[in-house]
């Protein structure tokens, strides 16, 4: 059994404030992108087999163990993972891989198991990937509302450096807090124009790595709209008016790092 584990971008990410537990209250819009990793599962008599990077700490391994325990299933699974997405880039790569494993295991070994809490225990972005598409998220990212959005050509770019999520959040200052996003206005402007969104984590990321501002300038210079850092970075995305325009922009970005064109939503 095989499945695409799509990337996600945040069509806006507003940090509203800091919660008593130290996490930050978010308002964001997740959107899946047609570029991603590939996850393959094969049933085996028992146990979980995965030979890739991070071994037992890999999110695909952890997702399989969680599901099989929750389902109380004696069967096992061999997992193969073909990575296409850069890691810790804000594209939800590992989170998407984990969700793909949960969804495939539910087909392979059906059981009355609610995948949502299992997903949430693996990371804030994992529940979104159980739904896919486009969804508004509040809280830490767990309160999801599916949205209808047009499919739009998009360019993803990652030139490094690795920016660990905890480090970016640690850099957030009170002056980075903003009001909630205007979700309807964002969806209305996706097909053309500049969506009225922002990513509150750009300020902290640019303070940590000022050179990232050059990435944004370069992508805008290629004519892309709504250029924004995704999640806690350091990947960026931009919207195009046709797939050809997106492919041309991705080609122009390739000498600077990892670049892909695909469909949003
Ligand atoms: C930023 C987002 C946007 O979707 O993810 P990415 O898209 O970049 O992966 C999420 O908020 C990533 O949430 P999550 O997956 O839980 O973060 P982790 O990588 O586990 O990092 C955990 C650390 O980040 C900080 N953190 C995380 C989420 C949040 N809402 N507030 C926080 O302050 C906390 O210090 C926490 O200890
Ligand atoms: N299958 C996986 N793919 C990518 N990263 C993984 C995976 N399993 C565990 N990890 C760890 O999880 C971290 C975050 O993964 P990822 O979801 O790619 O980040 P982001 O959501 O920022 O794109 C990585 O730094 C890596 O150490």
Automatic annotation (TrEMBL):
Reactions that this protein is recorded to catalyse: 4-CDP-2-C-methyl-D-erythritol + ATP = 4-CDP-2-C-methyl-D-erythritol 2-phosphate + ADP + H(+)
Annotated ATP binding sites: 86-96
Protein name: 4-diphosphocytidyl-2-C-methyl-D-erythritol kinase
Keywords linked to the UniProt accession: ATP-binding, Isoprene biosynthesis, Kinase, Nucleotide-binding, Transferase
Taxonomic lineage of the native organism: Bacteria, Thermotogati, Deinococcota, Deinococci, Thermales
Residue ranges annotated for the GHMP kinase C-terminal domain, each copy included: 190-254
Entries under PANTHER family matching the protein: 4-DIPHOSPHOCYTIDYL-2-C-METHYL-D-ERYTHRITOL KINASE, CHLOROPLASTIC
Function: Catalyzes the phosphorylation of the position 2 hydroxy group of 4-diphosphocytidyl-2C-methyl-D-erythritol.
Coiled coil: none
Gene this chain is encoded by: ispE
GO biological process: isopentenyl diphosphate biosynthetic process, methylerythritol 4-phosphate pathway; terpenoid biosynthetic process
Catalytic-site annotation from UniProt: 8, 125
Gene Ontology molecular function terms on file: 4-(cytidine 5'-diphospho)-2-C-methyl-D-erythritol kinase activity; ATP binding
Functional pathway: Isoprenoid biosynthesis; isopentenyl diphosphate biosynthesis via DXP pathway; isopentenyl diphosphate from 1-deoxy-D-xylulose 5-phosphate: step 3/6
Family, as annotated: Belongs to the GHMP kinase family. IspE subfamily.
